[in-house]
Amino acid sequence: MKSQYQKFDSLVSKLLDGSVSKSEFAELNDLLVSSTDLQHRYCSFIRNESIFHWENESTVSNDESKIINFPLFSYVASIAAVLVCLSSAWFLHTKYFQKSFFANKLIEANQISHTVSNEMNFKNSQSGQIVDHKFSKPMHLENLNEKAERLLHFFESKQDITDEGELSFDGTLPYVKVDELLSTAGKSGILPMSDGKMIELSDMLVDTVNQVAEVTETLRVYDMSSADLSTQSSVDASIHFNQSKSDLSDSTEFFLSLLAVETAENGFHELSSTEQMIYGDNDQTTWEKVDTGFAIPYGTEYLVVSLKAKKHGPSALTANKHDFFADELEISFAGI
Amino acid sequence: MNSVSVEYSQKLTAIQKSLYAFILSMIPNKSEAEDILQETNLILCQKAGEYDPNKHFQGWAFKIARFQMMKHLTNSKRNKIQFSTDLLEEVASEEFDSRKIQAAQKALSICYGLLPKSMQSIAKMRFKEELSLKIISKSVNRPLGAISSTLFRIRQKLVDCVEDKILSVESEIDFKKN
Known about the structure:
heterodimer; A: alpha+beta; Jelly Rolls; five-stranded antiparallel beta sheet; B: Rna Polymerase Sigma Factor, Chain: A; Arc Repressor Mutant, subunit A
């Protein structure tokens, strides 16, 4: 049983860190279906995770010391929940509930948590530039590479984009896509998933001192300025990754990210972003899927969809001996 | 429609942790779980008049949360990683009971203090500051895989320790109440 717990616990931990693959999830699901004992154990993991994430002081006795301080969002959400209920008759009778003070506080708290997360990114960025994100000053965006900025400027300037991408439409939503410029047929022992074409990522930039190699590709930029955004607007994205064979056992990190921006005085301002990572393996016959999504903040003018591949350690130094691929990008919008 | 009573609001506030844990167990993504929790809270307020005070509030709230989860999964257009909503139904009701969560919180506080110092720093960054593995990896200058492994060992230690202590903590809580 102990060895079974090891595997099970490892799968649950990966699930909670958002790095579980589809096959691993299926394995976890099978284990849960087969054993009530494991269901109890799984719930113990979840319970601990949720205690760390959320605290409600009214259920904690006075002599209990907090393990940790909980994020602002949890307090705002719980207080808002109670206040919403106490005034529910007024709220439920107005069709403007979505714009009510308390609903906006919940949305604001959500944005605060994104803002804090982005602040951490900025403070840890290699450029070392620290900017006060909360006051919406225009800034250098760590998450926005040069290619993405040029594509954004295309929408602003309406000039020709033929060398950088191709204008297309998702319904009435215009976007620039770069897929075709990066596309390739089967290569390095990897075959495309379905239509004979896949995306090949450019060569990685190698930092030999820190032994890190990475490449970022901007795939799509959507012009959201004409979209009818509401609090229900969201976007989901998924893509599959693969890589050519490597003699070293280290795996590559693959990222799919979404970035919501608005125009600002001297450039662009990030409203929100999300990024999901998955480890690639050394099996060229399988593609690893990663997906992500978020609520599109009100005021979003552009949505940037990017990929990144990254390697650490000694294998980073030989990163450009290998090829990295992506395929089957799917983007879907809801509530716009 | 009548305003929701203060008593109902207190029950709602008291159950937030249980509800969140229940939702997270089915949809193991924190931001989605938070969204669903908000939606569930709104429905619980709207349906306050339908609640029978003679029935268990947790069962009522979990039922509404389950419905919101199913709605969320149906509306989502991408192929998400998800459990069947009836997979953990029975066990979740027991494990996420408010009393059990209260005891687990106290046990977890003890167990967290027993973690080796090297693990505490990573636990703090992940659980307190909710930093991503990537940022933790940069902060401590260790590969992502190593951070992932450490978090696995931390979670495992905490689960085993809490399971070990929770019965005595529950007895202590009962003793203090009586």
